[in-house]
Amino acid sequence: MRALIVTLAGLLLLSVAPARADDTFTTTIKDHQFSPAELKVPANKRVTITVINDDPTPEEFESHTLKVEKVIPGKSKAIVRVGPLSPGKYSFFGEYHESTAKGVVIAE
Amino acid sequence: MLGALVIVFREVLEAGLIIGIVMAATRGVAARGRWVSYGVLAGIVGASVVAAFAGAISNAFEGSGQELFNACVLGTAVAMLMWHNAWMSRHGREIAAEMKQIGTAVSEGAKPLTALAVVVGLAVLREGSEVVLFLYGIAASGTSGSALLAGGVLGIAAGAAFTALTYFGLLAIPTRYIFSVTSWLIALLAAGMASQAVQFLNAGGLLTVLDGTVWDTSWMLSEGSLLGRLLHTMIGYSERPTEMQLVVYLSTLVAMFLLMRVVRYSPSKREVAA
User: Fold this and answer.
1) B234 beta partners
2) SS3 B170
3) B203 and A68 in contact (C-beta within 8 Å)?
4) CA atoms of B200 and B193, how far apart (whole Å)
5) What residue in A sits closest to B68 (Cα-Cα)?
6) Average pLDDT in the B266-270 region?
7) In what order do the strands lie in the sheet with A68-72?
8) For residue range A64-97, what is the model confidence (pLDDT) as tens digits?
9) Span B73-94, mean pLDDT?
């Protein structure tokens, strides 16, 4: 039992560690929705978010609080650099499909 | 359809505001309508080209191409606005005086109009490429396309109406004051653009010094709101400016002011040097 817990904890750490190491995060747009729609990022650090647009139509990744405005053509990806962020929630959206394409960056 | 109208209107609004200010600032200058039209047309052509190559631009410079491109466009516009204001502080008074006397257009210098035509062209290029991409997306997705397209066209019309509103609103200012008012508007416009350029360089990872947030007024006035957007374009309002943005904003204003002082035409003090 104890071995299992240690293994699980180890796996959890391993799965978290790579993202922490290079501070790169990814979200994918599909059917005008972000997935994952919630990105947990470290606070007070510059962070890179790769936004993959899997839809055939262009989208504009925008956030007033993150101060990002970036057009992503259909079937392509873009790199968005944000931060350093103070801890808190920062909402973002796809400007061309604002009703469905919504997400949030959580800096902690 | 309403959604498309709102999105397109929002993009057209920013370029429209700039065009309205430029038109008011060139009141009384001959052939300005033609120059501004050239600017708009060139901007639309440019916007289509930018939209077509959006992918290539975005991927250039390790994914910072779009940011670098926007920063360059904004930087060029700032230089052109400075040039115009410098010229205007030298000749504006003569134009105002002549306008009062004969009430017609004066045929003075084509140079500053080139500058402002470029500013108009760049504004249309920047905002227009987003409109083109959005409308292309609608057209490509088919089905309910025609209603959305109609919304887009109405959005452009609404933006044009707003431009006219800005222009005629500014024209209500008495001739005596109009050039000092538009000079200030252009100075603030340029400072705001310079600060936006800094933000693009920061987002591109090209300028990361002094990137702490100075204040956060998002609770009071969001940049997403209509007023926030208008102020963002007109005076460079930012809900969370970085230190560098503030430094560049103020430096641009000071540089503009000094430039206008240096070249100011003062007939009482000395003869005009060639």
Assistant:
1) none
2) helix
3) yes
4) 10
5) A70
6) 52
7) A38-41, A102-107, A88-94, A59-63, A68-72
8) 889 899 999 889 999 999 988 989 999 999 999 9
9) 87
Is the CB of A72 inside 8 Å of chain B's CB atoms? yes
3-state SS class at B105: coil
The single residue listed with the structure tokens 């501070």 is A23
**Residue from A79, A91, A92 to probe the interface with B (highest B Cβ count within 10 Å):** A79
Q: Is some CB atom of chain B closer than 8 A to the CB atom of A58?
A: yes
- If you measure CA to CA, which chain A residue comes closest to B203? A81
**Cα torsion angle, B225, B227, B232, B237, sign:** negative
Cβ neighbours of residue B39 closer than 8 Å, sequence gap 6 or more: B116, B117, B118, B119, B120, B121, B124
- What is the per-residue pLDDT for A103? 96
What letter does residue A70 receive in the DSSP assignment? E
Residue B195 tokens read as 């600060």
Query: Residue B137 is nearest to which of A58, A78, A80, comparing CB atoms?
Result: A58
Mean pLDDT of B248-269: 84
Q: Regarding beta strands A24-30 and A47-53, do their DSSP bridges make them parallel or antiparallel, or are they unpaired?
A: parallel
Q: In angstroms, what is the C-alpha Rg of chain B?
A: 20
- Cβ atoms of B198 and B244 closer than 8 Å: yes
Reported as a single tens digit per residue, the pLDDT across B104-151 is 445 555 556 888 999 999 999 999 999 988 888 877 776 566 777 888
- Structural contact between residues B204 and B60, judged by C-beta atoms closer than 8 angstroms: no
Instruction: Return the pLDDT at B144.
Output: 64
A57 touches chain B (CB under 8 A): yes
The pair of structure tokens assigned to B43 is 């901007």
Indicate the pTM of the whole model.
0.84
Q: How far is CA A36 from the centre of its chain?
A: 7
Alpha-carbon gap: A15 to the closest alpha carbon of chain B (Å): 26
Amino acid, res. B80: M
- HSE, CB side, 13 Å, CA atoms: give it for residue B39: 29
